[in-house]
Amino acid sequence: MDRKFTIIDEITREYRRFNTVGTQVTLRLLPPPEGDERNPVSYFIDSVTDLCEHALRNCNNSDMVGISIGKEVNEG
Question: What burial class does residue 32 get, using C-beta atoms within 10 Å of its C-beta: 0-12 exposed, 13-18 middle, 19+ buried?
Fold first, then answer.
């Protein structure tokens, strides 16, 4: 299965509030491929599902996972 996102940056950082170290990933959701007949909302939901599967891939039962979604404004 092709990923519906591309990883831009991945860093390890300390989360003092939770007394732990974790990984912060910055990524960009990719647009639908040419000829994809799904509506944009369905494609977005599939992209987020793909992202969640990626985030949970190497987790233990006691791990915490958080996802924040934002929009970068492209001016130009």
Answer: middle
Pick left, alpha or beta for residue 7 (phi over 0 → left; psi -120 to 50 → alpha; otherwise beta): beta
Provide the number of structural domains found in the chain: 1
Q: Taking residues 29-41, report their average pLDDT.
A: 87
Which pLDDT value is given to residue 66? 85
Q: 23 lies in which domain range?
A: 1-76
Give the Cα separation of 20 and 67 in Å (integer). 17
| 7 touches 25 (CB < 8 A) | yes
**Long-range Cβ contacts of 16-19 (<8 Å, 24+ apart):** 18/64
